[in-house]
Design a protein that fits this description.
- The structure holds two protein chains of two kinds.
- By secondary structure, chain A is an alpha/beta fold.
- Chain A has three domains: 54 residues, Alpha-Beta Plaits (2-Layer Sandwich); 285 residues, no CATH class; 68 residues, Orthogonal Bundle (3-methyladenine DNA Glycosylase II, Chain A, domain 3).
- Chain A has 14 helices and eleven strands.
- In chain A, the strands form four sheets. Chain A has a four-stranded parallel sheet with strand order 6-5-8-9, sandwiched between helices.
- Chain A is elongated, with a radius of gyration of 26 Å.
- Chain B is an alpha+beta fold.
- Chain B has a single domain, classed as Histidine kinase-like ATPase, C-terminal domain (Heat Shock Protein 90, 2-Layer Sandwich), CATH 3.30.565.
- Helices cover 35% and strands 30% of the residues of chain B.
- A six-stranded antiparallel sheet of chain B has the order 1-2-3-4-6-5, covered by helices on one side.
- The longest helix of chain B has 21 residues.
- Classes of the chains: A alpha/beta, B alpha+beta.
- Chains A and B meet through helix 10 and helix 12 of A and helix 1 and helix 2 of B.
Amino acid sequence: MNDYFHSVRLISNRCKGCVSCAKRCPTEAIRIRSGKAQIIESRCIDCGECIRRCPTHAKTAVTDQLADLAGYAYNVALPAPALYAQFSAEISINEILAGLLKLGFDEVFEVAQAAELVSVAIHDYMDRPERLRPVISSACPAVVRLIQVKFPELIEHLLPFNAPVEVAARIVRQTCSQKLHLTPDQIGIWFITPCPAKMTAIKQSNDLKSAISGAIGISKIYSDLLKAIPSISSEHTVLQKSTWQGIGWAMAGGESGSLHELNTLVVYGIHSVSNALEQVVMGKLSGLDYIEALACAGGCIGGALNVEDRFVAEHRMKQRKRKMPFGQKRTLQDKPTGYEQEVLIRSKQHAVEPKPVLRLDEDIIKAMSKVEEIEAMMKRLPGFDCGLCGSPSCYTLAQDIAQGMASETDCIFKLREKVRDLAQTMIELANKLPPSLDKDTS
Amino acid sequence: MIKLKDNQKILLEFNLAGSAFDLAGEASSKIKRVLQQIGVATEVIRRIAISSYEAEMNVIIHACCGVMRAEIYPNRTEIQVEDQGPGIADIALAMQEGFSTAPDFVREMGFGAGMGLPNMVRCSDQFDIQSQIGKGTTVLMVINH
Protein backbone atom coordinates (compact mmCIF):
# COMPACT_ATOMS: atom_id res chain seq x y z
CA MET A 1 0.00 0.00 0.00
CA ASN A 2 2.91 2.33 0.61
CA ASP A 3 4.08 2.91 -2.93
CA TYR A 4 2.72 6.46 -2.96
CA PHE A 5 4.44 9.48 -1.55
CA HIS A 6 1.94 12.03 -0.32
CA SER A 7 2.43 15.65 0.46
CA VAL A 8 -1.00 16.02 2.05
CA ARG A 9 -0.69 15.12 5.72
CA LEU A 10 -2.66 15.27 8.93
CA ILE A 11 -1.59 17.48 11.83
CA SER A 12 -2.98 15.10 14.40
CA ASN A 13 -3.34 17.44 17.38
CA ARG A 14 -5.40 19.90 15.34
CA CYS A 15 -7.85 17.27 14.06
CA LYS A 16 -11.08 17.09 16.04
CA GLY A 17 -12.31 14.07 14.10
CA CYS A 18 -15.21 15.70 12.26
CA VAL A 19 -16.15 14.44 8.81
CA SER A 20 -15.79 17.68 6.84
CA CYS A 21 -12.74 16.53 4.91
CA ALA A 22 -13.87 12.93 4.46
CA LYS A 23 -17.16 13.98 2.93
CA ARG A 24 -15.54 16.22 0.32
CA CYS A 25 -12.76 13.85 -0.68
CA PRO A 26 -13.29 12.99 -4.38
CA THR A 27 -11.76 9.52 -4.04
CA GLU A 28 -13.20 8.63 -0.61
CA ALA A 29 -9.68 8.39 0.76
CA ILE A 30 -10.36 9.56 4.31
CA ARG A 31 -11.73 7.58 7.27
CA ILE A 32 -12.08 8.82 10.84
CA ARG A 33 -10.34 6.37 13.14
CA SER A 34 -9.74 6.96 16.86
CA GLY A 35 -11.00 10.49 16.48
CA LYS A 36 -8.57 11.44 13.70
CA ALA A 37 -8.99 11.81 9.95
CA GLN A 38 -6.68 9.21 8.47
CA ILE A 39 -5.75 9.20 4.80
CA ILE A 40 -5.84 5.95 2.84
CA GLU A 41 -2.67 6.51 0.85
CA SER A 42 -3.48 4.38 -2.17
CA ARG A 43 -6.61 6.45 -2.79
CA CYS A 44 -5.29 9.96 -2.11
CA ILE A 45 -4.64 12.09 -5.20
CA ASP A 46 -3.25 15.11 -3.30
CA CYS A 47 -5.84 17.45 -4.76
CA GLY A 48 -5.83 19.50 -1.56
CA GLU A 49 -9.62 19.51 -1.22
CA CYS A 50 -9.30 18.41 2.44
CA ILE A 51 -6.82 21.21 3.19
CA ARG A 52 -9.42 23.66 1.95
CA ARG A 53 -12.30 22.06 3.84
CA CYS A 54 -10.79 21.46 7.25
CA PRO A 55 -12.28 23.92 9.77
CA THR A 56 -9.37 23.48 12.17
CA HIS A 57 -6.58 23.55 9.55
CA ALA A 58 -5.49 20.07 10.49
CA LYS A 59 -4.61 19.12 6.93
CA THR A 60 -1.43 20.44 5.48
CA ALA A 61 0.96 19.85 2.62
CA VAL A 62 4.58 19.03 3.22
CA THR A 63 6.79 21.11 0.97
CA ASP A 64 10.44 22.05 0.99
CA GLN A 65 11.75 25.33 2.35
CA LEU A 66 14.31 28.00 1.56
CA ALA A 67 16.77 26.45 4.01
CA ASP A 68 16.98 23.42 1.71
CA LEU A 69 18.78 25.56 -0.87
CA ALA A 70 21.93 25.24 1.21
CA GLY A 71 22.38 21.68 0.01
CA TYR A 72 23.17 22.80 -3.56
CA ALA A 73 25.91 24.85 -5.19
CA TYR A 74 23.57 26.57 -7.65
CA ASN A 75 19.85 27.14 -7.15
CA VAL A 76 17.21 27.92 -9.75
CA ALA A 77 13.64 28.97 -8.92
CA LEU A 78 10.81 27.88 -11.21
CA PRO A 79 7.94 30.19 -10.27
CA ALA A 80 4.45 28.98 -11.23
CA PRO A 81 2.51 31.70 -13.05
CA ALA A 82 0.03 31.59 -10.15
CA LEU A 83 2.73 33.28 -8.03
CA TYR A 84 2.23 36.52 -9.99
CA ALA A 85 -1.43 36.55 -9.00
CA GLN A 86 -0.52 36.76 -5.30
CA PHE A 87 0.74 40.31 -5.76
CA SER A 88 -1.01 43.47 -6.84
CA ALA A 89 -0.56 44.24 -10.52
CA GLU A 90 1.39 47.34 -9.42
CA ILE A 91 4.25 45.02 -8.59
CA SER A 92 5.73 43.93 -11.89
CA ILE A 93 6.62 40.36 -12.75
CA ASN A 94 10.21 41.58 -13.03
CA GLU A 95 10.14 42.74 -9.44
CA ILE A 96 8.70 39.43 -8.26
CA LEU A 97 11.42 37.53 -10.11
CA ALA A 98 14.12 39.85 -8.76
CA GLY A 99 12.66 39.25 -5.31
CA LEU A 100 13.22 35.53 -5.75
CA LEU A 101 16.88 36.19 -6.53
CA LYS A 102 17.12 38.20 -3.30
CA LEU A 103 15.86 35.21 -1.36
CA GLY A 104 18.91 33.23 -2.40
CA PHE A 105 18.16 31.78 -5.81
CA ASP A 106 20.94 32.21 -8.37
CA GLU A 107 18.61 32.18 -11.33
CA VAL A 108 14.92 32.16 -12.20
CA PHE A 109 13.18 30.35 -15.03
CA GLU A 110 9.49 31.01 -15.39
CA VAL A 111 7.26 27.96 -15.69
CA ALA A 112 5.16 30.17 -17.97
CA GLN A 113 7.94 29.97 -20.57
CA ALA A 114 7.71 26.19 -20.58
CA ALA A 115 3.93 26.48 -20.75
CA GLU A 116 4.35 28.43 -24.01
CA LEU A 117 6.40 25.57 -25.35
CA VAL A 118 3.75 23.08 -24.35
CA SER A 119 1.07 25.29 -25.93
CA VAL A 120 2.89 25.12 -29.25
CA ALA A 121 3.34 21.38 -28.90
CA ILE A 122 -0.36 20.82 -28.11
CA HIS A 123 -1.20 22.76 -31.23
CA ASP A 124 0.97 20.41 -33.27
CA TYR A 125 -0.27 17.30 -31.53
CA MET A 126 -3.89 18.12 -32.27
CA ASP A 127 -3.13 17.86 -36.00
CA ARG A 128 -1.96 14.28 -35.68
CA PRO A 129 -4.47 11.88 -37.19
CA GLU A 130 -3.87 9.11 -34.66
CA ARG A 131 -4.83 11.11 -31.59
CA LEU A 132 -7.88 10.00 -29.62
CA ARG A 133 -10.85 12.25 -29.09
CA PRO A 134 -10.98 13.96 -26.71
CA VAL A 135 -7.40 14.58 -25.67
CA ILE A 136 -7.21 15.27 -21.92
CA SER A 137 -4.65 17.75 -20.61
CA SER A 138 -1.84 16.31 -18.49
CA ALA A 139 -0.89 19.61 -16.86
CA CYS A 140 -2.73 19.14 -13.55
CA PRO A 141 -1.12 16.34 -11.54
CA ALA A 142 -4.20 15.86 -9.35
CA VAL A 143 -6.30 15.23 -12.44
CA VAL A 144 -3.70 12.79 -13.79
CA ARG A 145 -3.83 10.92 -10.48
CA LEU A 146 -7.64 11.01 -10.45
CA ILE A 147 -7.53 9.31 -13.86
CA GLN A 148 -5.03 6.69 -12.62
CA VAL A 149 -7.16 5.89 -9.59
CA LYS A 150 -10.73 6.32 -10.78
CA PHE A 151 -10.70 6.42 -14.58
CA PRO A 152 -7.84 4.17 -15.72
CA GLU A 153 -9.73 3.57 -18.97
CA LEU A 154 -8.94 7.18 -19.95
CA ILE A 155 -5.15 7.03 -19.56
CA GLU A 156 -4.75 6.75 -23.32
CA HIS A 157 -6.56 10.03 -23.74
CA LEU A 158 -3.98 11.93 -21.71
CA LEU A 159 -1.73 14.31 -23.58
CA PRO A 160 1.62 12.46 -23.81
CA PHE A 161 3.62 15.51 -22.73
CA ASN A 162 5.22 16.44 -19.44
CA ALA A 163 3.57 19.17 -17.40
CA PRO A 164 5.11 22.65 -18.01
CA VAL A 165 7.01 22.59 -14.69
CA GLU A 166 8.78 19.35 -15.58
CA VAL A 167 9.58 20.74 -19.03
CA ALA A 168 11.00 23.86 -17.40
CA ALA A 169 13.15 21.81 -15.03
CA ARG A 170 14.56 19.71 -17.85
CA ILE A 171 15.49 22.78 -19.87
CA VAL A 172 17.16 24.35 -16.84
CA ARG A 173 19.03 21.18 -15.96
CA GLN A 174 20.36 20.87 -19.51
CA THR A 175 21.43 24.49 -19.88
CA CYS A 176 22.85 24.86 -16.37
CA SER A 177 25.00 21.77 -16.44
CA GLN A 178 26.39 22.87 -19.81
CA LYS A 179 27.18 26.47 -18.95
CA LEU A 180 28.30 25.98 -15.33
CA HIS A 181 30.06 22.63 -15.59
CA LEU A 182 28.26 21.35 -12.52
CA THR A 183 27.14 17.81 -11.82
CA PRO A 184 23.38 17.32 -11.69
CA ASP A 185 23.37 16.90 -7.90
CA GLN A 186 24.96 20.32 -7.46
CA ILE A 187 22.06 22.08 -9.15
CA GLY A 188 18.95 22.67 -7.05
CA ILE A 189 15.81 23.26 -9.11
CA TRP A 190 12.89 24.48 -7.03
CA PHE A 191 9.31 24.77 -8.11
CA ILE A 192 7.44 27.59 -6.39
CA THR A 193 4.15 25.74 -6.25
CA PRO A 194 0.51 26.70 -5.76
CA CYS A 195 -0.58 23.14 -4.95
CA PRO A 196 0.34 19.98 -3.03
CA ALA A 197 -0.22 17.67 -6.00
CA LYS A 198 2.78 19.12 -7.81
CA MET A 199 4.90 18.40 -4.77
CA THR A 200 3.74 14.81 -4.84
CA ALA A 201 4.38 14.50 -8.56
CA ILE A 202 8.00 15.50 -7.94
CA LYS A 203 8.67 13.26 -4.95
CA GLN A 204 6.72 10.41 -6.50
CA SER A 205 9.32 9.39 -9.03
CA ASN A 206 12.19 8.86 -6.64
CA ASP A 207 13.92 6.17 -8.61
CA LEU A 208 12.94 7.73 -11.93
CA LYS A 209 14.21 11.12 -10.77
CA SER A 210 12.10 14.06 -11.77
CA ALA A 211 14.31 16.88 -13.01
CA ILE A 212 12.95 19.01 -10.17
CA SER A 213 14.83 18.92 -6.85
CA GLY A 214 11.97 20.08 -4.70
CA ALA A 215 8.93 22.28 -4.34
CA ILE A 216 8.34 25.24 -2.08
CA GLY A 217 4.75 26.24 -1.41
CA ILE A 218 3.84 29.78 -2.44
CA SER A 219 2.42 30.41 1.02
CA LYS A 220 5.74 29.41 2.55
CA ILE A 221 7.79 31.89 0.55
CA TYR A 222 5.25 34.70 0.29
CA SER A 223 6.10 36.69 3.38
CA ASP A 224 9.87 36.68 2.66
CA LEU A 225 9.20 37.66 -0.92
CA LEU A 226 6.89 40.47 0.11
CA LYS A 227 9.61 41.87 2.35
CA ALA A 228 12.30 41.57 -0.34
CA ILE A 229 10.41 43.30 -3.12
CA PRO A 230 10.40 46.95 -1.88
CA SER A 231 14.20 47.07 -1.82
CA ILE A 232 14.46 46.20 -5.50
CA SER A 233 15.55 49.05 -7.71
CA SER A 234 13.28 49.67 -10.64
CA GLU A 235 16.17 49.54 -13.11
CA HIS A 236 16.74 45.89 -12.41
CA THR A 237 17.65 43.79 -15.42
CA VAL A 238 14.72 42.44 -17.35
CA LEU A 239 14.06 38.98 -16.00
CA GLN A 240 10.60 38.37 -17.38
CA LYS A 241 10.70 36.37 -20.58
CA SER A 242 7.21 34.92 -20.56
CA THR A 243 4.18 36.22 -22.41
CA TRP A 244 0.50 36.01 -21.63
CA GLN A 245 0.28 32.76 -23.62
CA GLY A 246 2.20 31.07 -20.80
CA ILE A 247 1.18 33.22 -17.84
CA GLY A 248 -2.46 32.61 -18.70
CA TRP A 249 -2.04 28.95 -17.70
CA ALA A 250 -2.45 30.09 -14.09
CA MET A 251 -6.15 30.41 -14.74
CA ALA A 252 -8.71 28.01 -16.16
CA GLY A 253 -8.97 28.55 -19.91
CA GLY A 254 -5.38 29.71 -20.27
CA GLU A 255 -4.06 26.43 -21.53
CA SER A 256 -6.69 25.97 -24.20
CA GLY A 257 -6.60 29.68 -25.02
CA SER A 258 -4.51 29.09 -28.10
CA LEU A 259 -6.73 26.26 -29.33
CA HIS A 260 -9.75 28.39 -30.09
CA GLU A 261 -10.37 26.90 -33.50
CA LEU A 262 -10.86 23.51 -31.86
CA ASN A 263 -13.75 22.12 -29.87
CA THR A 264 -12.41 22.45 -26.33
CA LEU A 265 -13.97 22.04 -22.90
CA VAL A 266 -12.63 23.75 -19.82
CA VAL A 267 -13.63 22.16 -16.52
CA TYR A 268 -12.33 22.87 -13.04
CA GLY A 269 -13.02 21.81 -9.47
CA ILE A 270 -12.12 18.20 -8.76
CA HIS A 271 -15.74 17.05 -8.43
CA SER A 272 -16.76 18.69 -11.68
CA VAL A 273 -13.71 17.19 -13.37
CA SER A 274 -14.76 13.78 -12.08
CA ASN A 275 -18.27 14.25 -13.53
CA ALA A 276 -16.87 15.33 -16.89
CA LEU A 277 -14.53 12.33 -17.04
CA GLU A 278 -17.44 10.04 -16.21
CA GLN A 279 -19.19 11.41 -19.29
CA VAL A 280 -16.11 10.82 -21.43
CA VAL A 281 -16.13 7.18 -20.32
CA MET A 282 -19.74 6.87 -21.44
CA GLY A 283 -18.72 8.15 -24.85
CA LYS A 284 -20.86 11.22 -24.37
CA LEU A 285 -18.21 13.85 -25.04
CA SER A 286 -16.64 12.19 -28.06
CA GLY A 287 -17.31 15.27 -30.20
CA LEU A 288 -14.73 17.22 -28.20
CA ASP A 289 -11.12 17.70 -29.31
CA TYR A 290 -9.54 18.78 -26.04
CA ILE A 291 -10.39 18.87 -22.35
CA GLU A 292 -8.54 21.26 -20.10
CA ALA A 293 -9.26 19.78 -16.68
CA LEU A 294 -8.01 21.43 -13.50
CA ALA A 295 -8.51 20.18 -9.97
CA CYS A 296 -8.79 23.59 -8.33
CA ALA A 297 -11.64 26.05 -8.74
CA GLY A 298 -10.56 28.70 -11.21
CA GLY A 299 -7.39 26.78 -12.12
CA CYS A 300 -3.98 26.95 -10.43
CA ILE A 301 -4.77 30.31 -8.81
CA GLY A 302 -7.27 28.31 -6.73
CA GLY A 303 -4.55 25.97 -5.46
CA ALA A 304 -4.45 25.19 -1.76
CA LEU A 305 -0.98 26.69 -1.24
CA ASN A 306 -1.78 30.18 -2.54
CA VAL A 307 -2.26 33.04 -0.13
CA GLU A 308 -4.66 35.17 -2.15
CA ASP A 309 -8.37 34.45 -2.60
CA ARG A 310 -8.91 33.05 -6.07
CA PHE A 311 -11.34 35.72 -7.22
CA VAL A 312 -8.97 38.45 -6.17
CA ALA A 313 -6.16 36.53 -7.84
CA GLU A 314 -8.16 36.31 -11.06
CA HIS A 315 -8.90 40.01 -10.95
CA ARG A 316 -5.21 40.79 -10.52
CA MET A 317 -4.24 38.55 -13.39
CA LYS A 318 -6.71 40.32 -15.64
CA GLN A 319 -5.19 43.65 -14.64
CA ARG A 320 -1.76 42.28 -15.42
CA LYS A 321 -2.94 41.10 -18.81
CA ARG A 322 -4.17 44.60 -19.61
CA LYS A 323 -0.72 45.98 -18.81
CA MET A 324 1.11 43.48 -20.98
CA PRO A 325 2.24 44.50 -24.44
CA PHE A 326 0.41 42.93 -27.34
CA GLY A 327 1.82 40.77 -30.08
CA GLN A 328 4.20 38.78 -27.91
CA LYS A 329 2.54 35.47 -28.51
CA ARG A 330 4.79 32.64 -29.52
CA THR A 331 3.64 31.25 -32.83
CA LEU A 332 4.18 28.00 -34.61
CA GLN A 333 6.81 29.70 -36.78
CA ASP A 334 9.18 30.42 -33.94
CA LYS A 335 8.87 26.91 -32.64
CA PRO A 336 11.99 26.23 -30.60
CA THR A 337 14.32 23.74 -32.20
CA GLY A 338 14.38 20.22 -30.92
CA TYR A 339 11.43 20.91 -28.68
CA GLU A 340 10.03 17.43 -29.11
CA GLN A 341 13.03 15.82 -27.53
CA GLU A 342 13.12 14.34 -24.06
CA VAL A 343 12.24 17.71 -22.61
CA LEU A 344 8.66 17.50 -23.73
CA ILE A 345 7.58 13.95 -24.39
CA ARG A 346 6.74 11.80 -21.43
CA SER A 347 9.25 8.97 -21.54
CA LYS A 348 8.24 5.32 -21.26
CA GLN A 349 9.66 5.23 -17.72
CA HIS A 350 7.42 8.12 -16.77
CA ALA A 351 4.35 6.57 -18.39
CA VAL A 352 1.10 7.07 -16.52
CA GLU A 353 0.19 3.69 -15.03
CA PRO A 354 -3.30 2.70 -13.92
CA LYS A 355 -3.65 2.52 -10.13
CA PRO A 356 -7.23 1.34 -9.78
CA VAL A 357 -8.42 1.22 -6.18
CA LEU A 358 -12.05 0.27 -6.67
CA ARG A 359 -11.36 -3.42 -7.22
CA LEU A 360 -12.63 -5.41 -4.23
CA ASP A 361 -10.65 -8.61 -4.68
CA GLU A 362 -8.03 -10.14 -6.96
CA ASP A 363 -10.36 -13.12 -7.39
CA ILE A 364 -13.33 -12.16 -9.55
CA ILE A 365 -15.71 -14.63 -7.85
CA LYS A 366 -14.77 -13.31 -4.41
CA ALA A 367 -15.14 -9.76 -5.70
CA MET A 368 -18.59 -10.61 -7.01
CA SER A 369 -19.76 -11.93 -3.65
CA LYS A 370 -18.37 -8.81 -2.00
CA VAL A 371 -20.50 -6.73 -4.39
CA GLU A 372 -23.47 -8.81 -3.27
CA GLU A 373 -22.56 -8.27 0.36
CA ILE A 374 -22.31 -4.51 -0.16
CA GLU A 375 -25.70 -4.34 -1.82
CA ALA A 376 -27.32 -6.42 0.91
CA MET A 377 -25.72 -4.17 3.53
CA MET A 378 -26.99 -1.06 1.73
CA LYS A 379 -30.54 -2.29 2.30
CA ARG A 380 -29.90 -2.48 6.03
CA LEU A 381 -28.04 0.81 6.52
CA PRO A 382 -30.12 3.97 7.05
CA GLY A 383 -28.78 5.83 3.98
CA PHE A 384 -28.33 9.17 5.77
CA ASP A 385 -24.65 9.43 4.85
CA CYS A 386 -24.04 11.09 8.22
CA GLY A 387 -20.44 9.95 8.42
CA LEU A 388 -20.52 9.28 12.18
CA CYS A 389 -19.22 5.76 11.60
CA GLY A 390 -16.03 7.26 10.25
CA SER A 391 -16.73 6.42 6.59
CA PRO A 392 -17.91 9.31 4.42
CA SER A 393 -21.15 7.63 3.27
CA CYS A 394 -23.29 4.57 3.93
CA TYR A 395 -21.98 3.10 0.68
CA THR A 396 -18.35 3.45 1.71
CA LEU A 397 -19.20 1.92 5.10
CA ALA A 398 -20.82 -1.03 3.32
CA GLN A 399 -17.65 -1.33 1.22
CA ASP A 400 -15.43 -1.13 4.30
CA ILE A 401 -17.53 -3.83 6.01
CA ALA A 402 -17.21 -6.12 2.97
CA GLN A 403 -13.47 -5.56 3.08
CA GLY A 404 -13.33 -6.40 6.78
CA MET A 405 -12.26 -2.88 7.72
CA ALA A 406 -15.42 -1.94 9.62
CA SER A 407 -18.42 -3.57 11.22
CA GLU A 408 -22.15 -3.01 11.02
CA THR A 409 -22.38 -1.67 14.55
CA ASP A 410 -20.01 1.17 13.59
CA CYS A 411 -23.25 2.68 12.30
CA ILE A 412 -24.69 4.64 15.20
CA PHE A 413 -28.25 3.92 14.03
CA LYS A 414 -27.62 0.19 13.77
CA LEU A 415 -25.97 0.27 17.18
CA ARG A 416 -28.97 2.07 18.64
CA GLU A 417 -31.31 -0.50 17.09
CA LYS A 418 -29.28 -3.26 18.65
CA VAL A 419 -29.28 -1.56 22.06
CA ARG A 420 -33.05 -1.05 21.83
CA ASP A 421 -33.61 -4.69 20.94
CA LEU A 422 -31.37 -5.75 23.78
CA ALA A 423 -33.15 -3.43 26.22
CA GLN A 424 -36.48 -4.82 25.15
CA THR A 425 -35.26 -8.35 25.74
CA MET A 426 -33.97 -7.23 29.14
CA ILE A 427 -37.36 -5.78 30.11
CA GLU A 428 -39.10 -8.91 28.94
CA LEU A 429 -36.68 -10.99 30.97
CA ALA A 430 -37.04 -8.71 34.00
CA ASN A 431 -40.80 -9.23 33.96
CA LYS A 432 -40.38 -12.91 34.06
CA LEU A 433 -40.21 -14.39 37.57
CA PRO A 434 -39.65 -17.95 38.56
CA PRO A 435 -42.99 -19.56 39.51
CA SER A 436 -41.84 -19.85 43.11
CA LEU A 437 -41.81 -16.04 43.44
CA ASP A 438 -44.62 -15.10 41.07
CA LYS A 439 -47.59 -14.12 43.28
CA ASP A 440 -49.97 -13.49 40.34
CA THR A 441 -50.07 -17.09 39.32
CA SER A 442 -51.35 -18.33 42.65
CA MET B 1 -31.09 -3.15 -7.34
CA ILE B 2 -28.71 -6.07 -7.25
CA LYS B 3 -29.43 -9.73 -6.84
CA LEU B 4 -26.73 -12.35 -7.00
CA LYS B 5 -28.79 -15.28 -8.20
CA ASP B 6 -26.17 -17.86 -7.64
CA ASN B 7 -22.48 -17.45 -7.08
CA GLN B 8 -21.91 -17.04 -10.77
CA LYS B 9 -23.67 -13.85 -11.68
CA ILE B 10 -24.67 -10.41 -10.49
CA LEU B 11 -28.00 -9.15 -11.73
CA LEU B 12 -28.59 -5.42 -11.87
CA GLU B 13 -32.01 -4.15 -12.78
CA PHE B 14 -33.08 -0.59 -13.44
CA ASN B 15 -36.41 0.95 -14.28
CA LEU B 16 -35.98 3.68 -16.86
CA ALA B 17 -38.42 6.52 -17.45
CA GLY B 18 -38.81 8.23 -20.81
CA SER B 19 -37.73 11.91 -20.91
CA ALA B 20 -36.02 11.62 -17.50
CA PHE B 21 -32.90 13.44 -18.69
CA ASP B 22 -32.03 14.34 -15.11
CA LEU B 23 -31.38 10.66 -14.42
CA ALA B 24 -29.57 10.00 -17.70
CA GLY B 25 -26.54 7.78 -17.21
CA GLU B 26 -27.32 6.70 -13.63
CA ALA B 27 -27.91 3.07 -14.55
CA SER B 28 -24.83 2.86 -16.77
CA SER B 29 -22.69 4.49 -14.07
CA LYS B 30 -23.83 1.92 -11.57
CA ILE B 31 -23.04 -0.94 -13.95
CA LYS B 32 -19.63 0.58 -14.59
CA ARG B 33 -18.88 0.83 -10.87
CA VAL B 34 -19.72 -2.82 -10.25
CA LEU B 35 -17.49 -3.85 -13.16
CA GLN B 36 -14.63 -1.80 -11.67
CA GLN B 37 -15.25 -3.40 -8.28
CA ILE B 38 -14.96 -6.92 -9.65
CA GLY B 39 -11.87 -5.99 -11.64
CA VAL B 40 -12.93 -6.32 -15.29
CA ALA B 41 -10.30 -5.01 -17.74
CA THR B 42 -10.56 -1.25 -18.26
CA GLU B 43 -10.88 -1.52 -22.03
CA VAL B 44 -13.83 -3.92 -21.62
CA ILE B 45 -15.45 -1.66 -19.02
CA ARG B 46 -15.22 1.18 -21.48
CA ARG B 47 -17.09 -0.81 -24.14
CA ILE B 48 -19.77 -1.89 -21.68
CA ALA B 49 -20.12 1.67 -20.36
CA ILE B 50 -20.57 3.09 -23.85
CA SER B 51 -23.05 0.45 -25.02
CA SER B 52 -25.14 0.54 -21.85
CA TYR B 53 -25.18 4.33 -21.87
CA GLU B 54 -26.36 4.46 -25.50
CA ALA B 55 -29.08 1.90 -24.76
CA GLU B 56 -30.15 3.79 -21.63
CA MET B 57 -30.30 7.06 -23.56
CA ASN B 58 -32.39 5.51 -26.33
CA VAL B 59 -35.10 4.65 -23.81
CA ILE B 60 -34.97 8.13 -22.28
CA ILE B 61 -35.08 9.85 -25.69
CA HIS B 62 -37.61 7.69 -27.54
CA ALA B 63 -39.68 5.51 -25.20
CA CYS B 64 -42.16 6.09 -22.42
CA CYS B 65 -40.53 3.60 -20.09
CA GLY B 66 -38.26 0.62 -20.03
CA VAL B 67 -36.22 -1.83 -18.02
CA MET B 68 -32.48 -2.32 -18.25
CA ARG B 69 -31.04 -5.55 -16.99
CA ALA B 70 -27.34 -6.25 -16.70
CA GLU B 71 -26.21 -9.77 -15.95
CA ILE B 72 -22.57 -9.81 -15.00
CA TYR B 73 -20.81 -13.18 -15.23
CA PRO B 74 -17.13 -13.73 -14.51
CA ASN B 75 -16.43 -14.00 -18.25
CA ARG B 76 -19.04 -11.73 -19.84
CA THR B 77 -21.71 -9.10 -19.32
CA GLU B 78 -25.13 -9.34 -20.89
CA ILE B 79 -27.26 -6.24 -21.16
CA GLN B 80 -30.90 -6.40 -22.06
CA VAL B 81 -32.98 -3.28 -22.53
CA GLU B 82 -36.69 -3.63 -23.08
CA ASP B 83 -38.80 -0.56 -23.67
CA GLN B 84 -42.38 0.39 -24.24
CA GLY B 85 -42.19 2.90 -27.01
CA PRO B 86 -42.86 3.70 -30.65
CA GLY B 87 -40.79 0.83 -32.02
CA ILE B 88 -38.47 1.06 -35.02
CA ALA B 89 -40.02 0.90 -38.49
CA ASP B 90 -36.88 0.04 -40.44
CA ILE B 91 -34.19 -1.50 -38.27
CA ALA B 92 -31.62 -1.67 -41.10
CA LEU B 93 -32.04 2.06 -41.68
CA ALA B 94 -31.83 2.82 -37.95
CA MET B 95 -28.56 0.94 -37.77
CA GLN B 96 -26.93 3.31 -40.27
CA GLU B 97 -24.57 5.89 -38.85
CA GLY B 98 -26.10 9.31 -38.66
CA PHE B 99 -29.70 8.18 -39.06
CA SER B 100 -31.83 9.63 -36.28
CA THR B 101 -35.48 10.18 -35.48
CA ALA B 102 -34.72 12.14 -32.33
CA PRO B 103 -36.82 15.28 -31.99
CA ASP B 104 -35.14 18.70 -32.33
CA PHE B 105 -35.16 19.52 -28.60
CA VAL B 106 -33.22 16.35 -27.94
CA ARG B 107 -30.67 17.16 -30.64
CA GLU B 108 -30.24 20.61 -29.15
CA MET B 109 -29.18 18.91 -25.95
CA GLY B 110 -26.43 17.15 -27.86
CA PHE B 111 -28.15 13.78 -28.11
CA GLY B 112 -29.68 11.99 -31.08
CA ALA B 113 -26.74 12.19 -33.45
CA GLY B 114 -27.71 8.85 -34.98
CA MET B 115 -24.72 7.05 -33.48
CA GLY B 116 -26.53 5.17 -30.73
CA LEU B 117 -27.21 1.82 -32.41
CA PRO B 118 -23.98 1.78 -34.48
CA ASN B 119 -22.00 2.44 -31.27
CA MET B 120 -23.79 -0.39 -29.49
CA VAL B 121 -22.97 -2.79 -32.35
CA ARG B 122 -19.35 -1.60 -32.42
CA CYS B 123 -18.88 -2.10 -28.67
CA SER B 124 -20.57 -5.47 -28.20
CA ASP B 125 -19.51 -8.97 -29.18
CA GLN B 126 -23.09 -10.09 -29.80
CA PHE B 127 -25.94 -7.79 -30.66
CA ASP B 128 -29.60 -8.47 -31.22
CA ILE B 129 -32.51 -6.11 -31.72
CA GLN B 130 -36.23 -6.82 -31.94
CA SER B 131 -38.86 -4.19 -32.49
CA GLN B 132 -42.59 -3.92 -32.95
CA ILE B 133 -44.23 -0.71 -34.14
CA GLY B 134 -46.40 0.83 -31.47
CA LYS B 135 -45.22 -1.60 -28.85
CA GLY B 136 -41.54 -1.27 -28.17
CA THR B 137 -37.99 -2.38 -28.76
CA THR B 138 -35.74 -4.94 -27.10
CA VAL B 139 -31.97 -4.84 -27.41
CA LEU B 140 -29.66 -7.59 -26.22
CA MET B 141 -25.91 -7.09 -26.06
CA VAL B 142 -23.22 -9.48 -24.90
CA ILE B 143 -19.73 -8.21 -24.16
CA ASN B 144 -17.04 -10.76 -23.38
CA HIS B 145 -14.62 -9.88 -20.60
